[in-house]
Amino acid sequence: MNQYIIKRNNIKIRGNGTQTLLFAPGFGCDQSVWHSVAKAFEEDYKIILFDYVGSGNSDLQAYDLNRYGTLNGYAQDVLDVCSALDLKDTILIGHSVGSMIGMLASLKHPEYFSDLIMLGPSPCYLNDPPHYYGGFEKEQLTGLIDMMEKNYIGWTTLFAGTLMNNTDRPEIKKELEDRFCSTDPIIARQFAEATFFTDNRKDLPNVTVPSLILQCSDDIIAPSVVGEYLHQHLPSSTLIKMEATGHCPHMSHPEETVQLIDRYLNKALHMERQTDRGDLM
Predict the structure, then answer these.
(1) Catalytic residues
(2) Over 116-162, what HEC string results?
(3) Less crowded by CB within 10 Å, the N or C end of the chain?
(4) pTM of this prediction?
(5) Which option is the CATH number for 3-280: 3.50.30.40, 1.10.490.10, 3.30.1440.10, 3.40.50.1820?
């Protein structure tokens, strides 16, 4: 194991299984957001949690403005984690932009991954009429970025509320606010720009790893049409529309999230075993 990467990305390894689940956080979050979901799989899987450089308890000294100016820098973090732990055929579970980061990593090294599970993914947040609706006009996203610079605390409250879109779970909104506040504002702003102004639509047809898209209800950040677009353009993809509302089902609705992931994993592993038996015949 590469001890430098383990320390740099604050890698934690848990669980009892042989099949690996690698959890990739979304924008502004660290590995702790996966607590409820990851814990449910510890009995049957090996669980790997990590922080991107610049988030959580990662090594802030390793943050580089050039490397993390695009999502490719974060995708390299994922690849570094896979390489450091010598992973193969890993199931990556990503939230929001973590899904796209995992997808980009799979394009560079598909051998590291057997499946991608995406919670609230979006390949492009900007509207591009008449054929694509991402949910936001450029002026809206520019205003959001400007607010981060002028009033970071106010931005954390506004953005956490937008993510949750769930007024009966104020404690989850507070959790998100605290995580955003614990991130260096300069790093958070650069990550926001890399996230919200990226366009990965052209990459979708090149993905070779099977994927599950979990689309939330009433998700302001990644509307239903975005999930449908991904399903249409991602080869070997499965789309499931959740009852969970908002953009963070792993935090607000962990039971449904676990149930749907477990169902997909059981089906995927069953098909894998069938294929293995077929190869022996």
Answers:
(1) 96, 219, 247
(2) EEEECCCCECECECCCECCCECHHHHHHHHHHHHHCHHHHHHHHHHH
(3) C
(4) 0.93
(5) 3.40.50.1820
